[in-house]
């Protein structure tokens, strides 16, 4: 409970090590946690509002039944992080690294994920609404049984990604890279390369 103890004395907790932290049923607001480390930490039933996680190291963290409102994850390392039954709203993942990151049964709305790297990630049974993926690299990522609406795939790299059993509405596609038939009806690349073959919707 080091995080809770330190919060009592300060709202600025930059460059701290909170690895293996375990927090349940808490509510945080207006904290600056940038450059801090949360490796293998677990947060359950926790609310984060106006929290600055920019350039944090959140690798292998687990957020279960958590809510994020107006949070900043700019340039944050979220490798192997799991968001389960989480609600994310009006947040920023600009230039975040999300290798093998999973979103299970989540709701993500009005969020900027531009220039982010999502490699071998997964969005399973997740609702994505009003999301900006401009210039994001989303390679070998699975969108399965999810709902995507008002999405910007502008200069987005979607090679080897799939949208199995997902519903897609109001997709803004400008120069996205997706070898194969685009499930939202966009223009596919000519002569798709076998090594970059992508799966469409079922």
Detailed description of the structure:
There is one protein chain. This protein is mainly β and 202 residues long. It has a single domain, classed as Pectate Lyase C-like (3 Solenoid), CATH 2.160.20.80. Helices cover 3% and strands 33% of the residues. The strands form 3 sheets. The chain has an 8-stranded parallel sheet, with no helix packed on it. Strands 1-3-5-7-9-12-15 form a 7-stranded parallel sheet, with no helix packed on it. The chain is elongated and about 55 Å long. The C terminus is likely disordered.
What fraction strand?
A: 25-35%
**Tally of DSSP β-strands:** 17
Which stretches are low in confidence, meaning pLDDT under 50 for 5 or more residues running?
190-202
The CATH homologous superfamily: E3 ubiquitin-protein ligase SopA
Any idea what the radius of gyration is? Answer: 17 Å
Task: Please bin the fraction of helical residues.
Answer: under 10%
Instruction: Report strand order across the widest sheet.
Output: 2-4-6-8-10-13-16-17
**What general outline do the C-alpha atoms trace?**
elongated
Mind telling me which CATH architecture this is? 3 Solenoid
Content-based structural category:
mainly beta
The name CATH uses for the topology is Pectate Lyase C-like
CATH domain class: Mainly Beta
Order of secondary-structure elements: HEEEEEEEEEEEEEEEEE
Give average pLDDT, whole number. 91
Number of domains: 1
Give the distance, in angstroms, between the N- and C-terminal Cα atoms: 46 Å
Major sheet size, sense and barrel closure: 8 strands, parallel
Helix segment tally: 1
């Amino acid at each position: 409970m080091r995080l809770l103890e330190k919060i009592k004395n300060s709202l600025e907790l930059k460059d701290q090590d909170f690895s293996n932290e375990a927090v349940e049923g808490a509510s945080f607001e207006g904290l600056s946690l940038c450059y801090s480390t949360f490796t293998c930490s677990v947060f359950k039933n926790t609310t984060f509002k106006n929290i600055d996680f920019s350039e944090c190291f959140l690798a292998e963290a687990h957020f279960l039944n958590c809510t994020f409102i107006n949070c900043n994850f700019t340039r944050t390392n979220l490798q192997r992080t799991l968001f389960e039954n989480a609600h994310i709203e009006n947040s920023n993942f600009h230039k975040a690294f999300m290798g093998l990151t999973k979103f299970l049964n989540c709701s993500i709305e009005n969020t900027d994920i531009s220039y982010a790297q999502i490699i071998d990630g997964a969005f399973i049974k997740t609702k994505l609404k009003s999301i900006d993926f401009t210039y994001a690299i989303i390679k070998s990522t699975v969108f399965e049984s999810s709902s995507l609406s008002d999405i910007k795939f502008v200069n987005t790299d979607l090679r080897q990604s799939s949208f199995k059993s997902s519903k897609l509405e109001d997709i803004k596609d400008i120069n996205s890279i997706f070898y194969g038939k685009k499930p939202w009806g966009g223009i596919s690349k000519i002569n798709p390369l076998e090594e970059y073959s992508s799966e469409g919707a079922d």
